[in-house]
């Protein structure tokens, strides 16, 4: 893991949606310079407290960006190489690292290698790039059956046993790292054999030892995947689910259990943590009680991990993901040209993010902090976030009544609201209904 990631907070953007690009790319459409639209938001990201810009797909594709047709070319709906270079320069000038989204489990049907298969049949030079099953009596122009990603026929799975595919993926990663990117998110990393990643990433790291590599993994053996592949981290979906589910159900036992498992992961690697991204319902819509949004953020910004904020969540954007064609549109909306045109209702949540990120900057050891339960009930939780010798306490109250909770050795409240009281039995914090506080030991 590169040293710089210890101080990184990502602001994640889905560019095709952010800039209002067409949902489908015409094969011969002219280049439209939309990437410069992001320049007007870089200072906003820095003022938020972010130190990295995590980009969704930006390479030539047919629709949503995950059906790649040319990973060596910027999507013409976004711009060209010069626009990419300008974005890298502008971001780096502000201290923002750039994370790219690599789709290496599959390609789109319009990818030249697959089109070659459709036109030339089994004799196509790159036929072994895919997992194909040909009908008897195959002739040029016949269409084979083929492995696809999770039943989506437009997403053709690559054959990760083919050495040419490994060389192809390594070449893509090298190309954009050479142009100034700082790391890669590996889309659908869970669907790709670990041995493939191990081969590719060792090759990439030989030229780019300071690159950050994080894999999208929903569930499974997180630590084992990191160990076997050479990735720096994977996405922490277990904790994401436990945060909103535990808050909604007033079941903080679920959250506490997930944090115990999270401690185990931290023994092996530092996960990418989040409460929202481009694939899930926005946290402000997911929570059934909007008063508990600060509680979710308090956990995100004090537990061990590399936090990521999905653009718009810091303004309490709403959006529900639906399982249908176009079901991601609500969570991938266009943004106005500048932050000044945002609606006023979201700025208090933006300022809350600023306060919590500033707290994390004051306590950089939180990147590897473990959690210890001090008090646990269905609707109350006190956690000690520790990386010896430092400790912060996080106190949460989900109930409609005020409570007094133990916070041993706490000296003052850093963020949140409450009142510290010293008693014979130790220090306690009084929290109002749906109250929360982060305290210094």
UniProtKB/TrEMBL annotation:
GO BP terms, alphabetized: carbohydrate metabolic process
GO MF annotation list: hydrolase activity, acting on glycosyl bonds
Record keywords, A-Z: Glycosidase, Hydrolase
Domain Glycosyl hydrolase family 13 catalytic span(s) in chain numbering: 12-360
PANTHER family associated with the record: ALPHA-AMYLASE FAMILY MEMBER, MALTODEXTRIN GLUCOSIDASE
Species this protein is from: Methylobacterium tardum
Record has Protein biosynthesis as a keyword: no
Entry protein name: Alpha-amylase
